[in-house]
Amino acid sequence: MKIWKKNFCYTLTIIMSTMLISIAFFYFMIPVYYQFKQSTSLSNDLSEAIEEIEKMPIEDAVNYLEKNFSNTNWVLTDEQNNQMYTGNLIRWDDEETSNINSFDVPSSLGSSIVAERIIKEFWDDNGDKYFLSGFTLTQPIIEASNVMLELLPIILLITLIIGIVSTYIYSRSSTKRILNISEITNKMVKKIDVECDISGKDELAGLAKDINLLNNTLKNTIRALEVEISKVEEIERNKEYFVQSAAHELKTPITIMSGIIEGMRLNVGRYQDREKYLEICQDLLSTQQNLIHNIFSVYKDERISEQGKATKFSLKSIVEDLVKPYKIISEAKRKHFTVDLTEINIIANKEQVERLLSNVITNAFQYCQEDGQINIKLKKNCFIIENSCKPLEPEILTKIFEPFYRPDYARNRKLGGNGLGLFIVKQILDTNNYTYKFVPNNKQNGMVFTIQFNNFYEK
User: For the whole model, what pTM was predicted?
Assistant: First the structure.
């Protein structure tokens, strides 16, 4: 059953039940209450009259009652029950007055009324005892109750009609907001951008507000989940690409070595010079060993970033240690180092930062041209390294951080590396949210790599 129908039935039942109970209450209680009020009023009137006639001669008392209370149903009697005064509203049925139980009211009703008698006693000036009594009339209220009982079907019919109309209007209007909230909630489920109307300060307004809050929270959660899912999908795609690229990089030298070893085993042509080709195989194996080491470094960096270990250390000390071996071989390679370092302390994963700077310095040294200059600066919270080389073109810069990518002029495996150095650099930079730039330095005909550390501290 719909809620407005339930509300209609419950409300109509309450209205009719209340009406029946009210009618029954008035039917039974009004005569009782009316009798009580009549008795109380009569008793008070008799007491006030006795205050006036008490201690008077009985003749004066009778005259006072006839003058002031002639139009009453009062009776004045002595101790022998002889009537001294009778109000005009009383007409006795017979001469016998020893047992006064009923009297006739001179009216169009024409019936004998059995009434409650209230007696007050008093004494005159001679000390004789008298009784002033009166009678309460309940017949009018009884007849009114009977009339009300006769009109009960009409009252119930009118009440039923009014109750049905008013209850229907109330039920429809009271459930309209609930139906509106239900309709809007269904639209929310279908991901339609709607909100419940918050009007008023009652419970339904609070419910609408809570639904809107819940909907906004769910939408924000869904957006966050979608972002996380896209990130996970991107990570999975990158891993798939990385594995495919790694397999390709491993497959080529293995194929070459297989061909060399097969030629050496068959002692064919140039492969008879075993010493020469064993050395080539050794170089290929060394290259693959370095490649595998870098691949493990990638996943090692992921594990380290997940653990979130961070310590305080000097960035200047790390750069000095990394630059030392390059300074030693720079003269033999006809490359020149310039180092300008200031003391900078940061809070980070020390192993990651060492690998980050090591790869950047190695990359700059490896691609620096002969008689070129390598400048390293460390000031404020920035690490800057410049090298003399052919500036990279924009299309190359967009791919330079991809795994196993090498520019065309660096395809030589011996000179160009394995293509994982800058990929590892970018991975560490992204993990720690470091700001960086790798741009051409056209003034000095080279490249500039700038890293801004956001977790430094001052001593």
Answer: 0.44
- The answer to whether the beta carbons of residues 105 and 113 sit under 8 Å apart is yes
Q: Taking residues 387-416, what's their average pLDDT?
A: 72
* CA-only gyration radius of the chain, Å: 57
d(CA 115, CA 133): 12
54 token code pair: 């008490």
In order, the DSSP letters of 385-444 are EEEESPPPPHHHHTTTTSTT---GGG--HHHH--S-HHHHHHHHHHHHT-EEEEEEETTT
Q: What's the mean pLDDT in 443-447? A: 80
Placement of tokens 């007050």 in the chain: 120
pLDDT at 297 exceeding the cut of 80:
no
Q: Which helix (H) or strand (E) holds 120?
A: strand 116-123
Cα separation of 32 and 159, whole Å? 26
Task: Average the pLDDT over 16-29 and give the result.
Answer: 82
**77: part of which helix (H) or strand (E)?**
strand 74-78
Please, are residues 456 and 344 in contact by the beta-carbon 8 Å criterion?
Answer: yes
Q: In what order do the strands lie in the sheet with 74-78?
A: 83-86, 74-78, 129-136, 116-123
Residue 232, judged by CB atoms within 10 A of its CB (0-12, 13-18, 19+), counts as exposed
Q: For strand 102-104 and strand 112-114, is the pairing parallel, antiparallel, or unpaired?
A: antiparallel
DSSP one-letter code for 455: S
Centroid of chain to Cα 411? 58
Choose among 145, 143, 194, 202: nearest CA to 178: 202
Q: Is 155 helix (H, G, I), strand (E, B) or coil?
A: helix
319, 341 Cβ separation under 8 angstroms = yes
Token pair belonging to 357: 């700077």
Q: Is the pLDDT of residue 301 over 70?
A: no
Query: For residue 450, what pLDDT is reported?
Result: 93
* Cα–Cα distance for residue pair 148/27, rounded to 1 Å: 8
Distance CA 219, CA 217 (A): 5
